[in-house]
Automatic annotation (TrEMBL):
Organism listed in the record: Tenacibaculum aiptasiae
Transmembrane helix is among the record's keywords: yes
GO BP field: regulation of cell shape
Family indicated by similarity: Belongs to the MreC family.
Annotated protein name in UniProt: Cell shape-determining protein MreC
The UniProt record lists the keyword Transmembrane: yes
Lineage: Bacteria, Pseudomonadati, Bacteroidota, Flavobacteriia, Flavobacteriales
Pfam families per record: MreC (PF04085)
UniProt domain Rod shape-determining protein MreC beta-barrel core: residue ranges: 113-259
InterPro entries (UniProt xref): Cell/Rod_1, Cell/Rod_MreC_2, MreC, MreC_beta-barrel_core
Gene Ontology CC, one term: plasma membrane
Entry keywords, A to Z: Cell shape, Membrane, Transmembrane, Transmembrane helix
Residue intervals passing through the bilayer: 12-29
Amino acid sequence: MQQLIYFLQKYKHFLFFLFLEIIAVALIINNHSFHRSKFISSTNFITGGLYNKSSEISEYLNLKDQNNILAEENTLLRNKLEKIYAIIDTTNIASVSDSLYPNQQYKYINGKITNNSYNKSNNFITINRGSKNGVSTEMAVINSKGVIGITDNISGKFARVQSILNSKSRINASFKNNNHFGTLTWNGKDYNTVQLTDIPRQAIFKVGDTVITGGKSTIFPKGIPIGTILEVPEKLSASNTIDVKLFNDMSNLGHIYVIINLDKKEIKTVENE
């Protein structure tokens, strides 16, 4: 309190002058329409800028929530697409109820990556979805850009995923422009590049061609993007191996989708018999 009194005493002449100036400016603005309009225009410009910056900061702080909302919407859209495909494949569309899609084969669950390794020979990823969410072993894990890996260990709330960057990873893959397929592996060198092996001699492909999942297993649907061909061997042989540049940056992963094959159990039963 003493400091405040000292300050007022020291600067009383300046403060009185400032007070009179404020009154003078207020009178000018109040009695002259030109000055009043300029003042209002300037005030709107300043407050508008402040509101805009405040809005930008608020949007930035809410990015996490917005990303979660988008992931939920994408999951919903993917599941609706699968139901549409099921209806298209149904001979008697009129008999299919809204809640029953007998030909629907795949269901999607969205989630996030909580841990990711990519610089080892056998890399694994942890996701925040487990048995309580319907996730079990040997389920495909993808994102909007393509293949990430396959679930191999499950708890109630979490799952471990064998990354595509794993020396033990074996994924059926094919060329987008034809039905020839091979096996996708990783040689442990570059986390941006995997290898496609066991390609038939008669297969036709070139640099830049897209490689997708082949759909020859109960894990991945056909057509999930993987990457593009980096180079073509000069001589084709029975053990063709080509490098495939991944669409995904495996060092920078966030939201994911787990794919549930609703027909997996039945397919396995038939194949085992």
